[in-house]
Amino acid sequence: MPQWMRRQLQRAFIGKDVRQIRLLNSCWFLYWEKHGGRPE
Fold first, then answer.
1. What is the pTM of this model?
2. Which of 8, 30, 33, 34 counts the most CB atoms within 10 A of its CB?
3. Is the separation of the CB atoms in 24 and 5 below 8 Å?
């Protein structure tokens, strides 16, 4: 997972921003599937 995405997820979890967590989660899975399911 890219570092910038990891930081945004951490901020969203700390702030309990459910909408942001869901958005980043779906973005991550789209990225993951597009790159052959190989995590960074």
1. 0.71
2. 8
3. yes
